[in-house]
Amino acid sequence: MRRRSTGRGRFRTPLQGFTSTPRPLDGVPPFVWHGSIRSPEIAEQAAYYGDGFFANHIYWPKDHFQRLIGIYRERYAHYGHGTPEQAIVGLGGQVYLHRNSQEAVREFRPYFDNSSVYGHGPSLEEMTEQTPLTVGSPQEVIDRTLTFREHFGDYQRQLFFMDGAGLPLKTVLEQLDILGEEVVPVLRKEFSARRAAGVPDAPVHPALGVTGASA
Amino acid sequence: MKLAVVSAGLSLPSSTRLLADRLTSALVDRVPEVEVEVIELRDLAVDIANNLVTGFPASRLRAAIDAVTSADGLVAVSPIFTASYSGLFKSFFDVIDHDALAGKPVLIAATGGTARHSLALEHALRPMFAYLRAIVAPTAVYAASEDWGAEGLSERIERAASELAGLMGKEQPVRAQVDEVVPFEQQLAALRP
């Protein structure tokens, strides 16, 4: 059922027939994530409400995101929602895949070199070493992504930035095929096998049950 | 006690580094237990430019920034280019957090081809460190080519080093904890009427 809100608040312009989405499904509200690139205040806010915290985890070294997630986990426990390990964490990441890792680098380099974010700074090699960006074979992406768990603890959601740097649609669709066929099934299995006891799975709508698996 | 020395000289050997070394040795004479770490910005030029583009320091530059921010005192020496500090010198301080040098004792010094640029120290370096809330020693040392063979430079070096040694012995203002988080209730309370 759609609900239209009309009214005026203290902190924003008046709402006229506004429908906020997503809506609750079967009376269950959607799980709320708070995403942050650099603000520890957002980690604190997510912890206060016991909601999920998503760190964008691209373009910068892991230390910065470790700090944000460390604050979130600690404050999540402080507010009595569970142990730090039970806090609901999501991470970004960026990958470019090819069955042959040298080909992945060869194909991605012109996009990297001319990207508005990456271009004309450190090299592709330097940025893949210093930031979460991974350019290589499915196995390399799997291995790199599994290290995220070592850096941040067990976490519930992994989002990959797949259409950055001006990649054409056809390439992005091919990338999604490789990701879906060769990377994600392995990551689901490996993350699930490694998850410590007592750490919750990713939050999903009850109708999806346990099959709404993580990663 | 730790002293960081930042030299933005570009040639090898460099008169800027030479001045930095003279100031350092005058400081060490007064504070013999001090540990000195010299940072040659020339070696970090590409990393500094990359940090401007990416927003984060590569590991070598991060080590240099940590050395400067954790030191008990700083000697900062730049060549004067086009009436001011060199772009490399400024860029290094641009990539350091603007609160990170608050309360830090700093000795400023510069080199140039002519004495006519000496006040760049007072018009450029001193206000920059004032903005960063560093404690800048009253004597700034300028060395033009002609000063190296003339009377006066050694006295100014000694005086500046004495002032820095005095500042380094004093208690520094306590800086806020980096990871301090404002509790969310407090943020909410500030919004309530």
What this model shows, in words?
The complex is a heterodimer of chains A (215) and B (193). Among the domains of chain A are: 32-91, no CATH class; 94-144 and 166-198, no CATH class. In chain A, the strands form three sheets. Chain A has a four-stranded parallel β-sheet. Chain A has a two-stranded antiparallel sheet with strand order 1-2. A two-stranded parallel ribbon of chain A has the order 6-7. Chain A has six helices and eight strands, in the order βββαβαββααβαβα. Chain A has 215 residues and is of the alpha/beta class. Chain A is globular, with a radius of gyration of 19 Å. In chain A, α1 (40-49) packs parallel to α2. In chain B, α1 crosses α6 (153-169) and α2 (45-54) crosses α4. Chain B has helices spanning 15-30, 45-54, 59-70, 87-94, 120-131, 153-169, 184-191, and strands at 2-7, 35-40, 73-81, 84-85, 105-112, 135-136, 141-144. Chain B is an alpha/beta fold and 193 residues long. The termini of chain B are far apart. In chain B, strands 1, 2, 3, 4, 5, 6 and 7 form a seven-stranded mixed β-sheet that branches. Chain B has seven helices and seven strands, in the order βαβααββαβαββαα. The longest helix of chain B has 17 residues, at 153-169. Classes of the chains: A alpha/beta (215), B alpha/beta (193). Chain A: This is Putative FMN-dependent luciferase-like monooxygenase. Chain A: InterPro entries: Bact_Lucif_Oxidored (IPR050766), Luciferase-like_dom (IPR011251), Luciferase-like_sf (IPR036661).
Radius of gyration of chain A: 19 Å
pLDDT averaged over residues of chain B: 94
Report Rg of chain B.
Answer: 18 Å
Strand content of chain B: 15-25%
For the largest beta-sheet of chain B, the strand count, sense and barrel status come to: 7 strands, mixed
Largest interface: A-B, 23 and 17 residues
Element-level helix/strand string of chain B: EHEHHEEHEHEEHH
Give the mean pLDDT of chain A.
92
The number of strands of chain A is 8
Output the strand order for the largest sheet of chain A: 3-4-5-8
How many structural domains in the coordinates of chain B?
1
The oligomeric status of these chains comes to heterodimer
Shape of chain A: globular
Order of helices and strands of chain A: EEEHEHEEHHEHEH
Structural class of chain B: alpha/beta
Task: Tell me the distance between the termini of chain A.
Answer: 30 Å
If you consult CATH, what is the topology of chain B? Rossmann fold
The CATH architecture of chain B: 3-Layer(aba) Sandwich
Give the overall shape of chain B, derived from the CA principal axes. globular
Q: How many runs of DSSP E, i.e. beta strands of chain B?
A: 7
Helical residue percent band of chain A = 40-55%
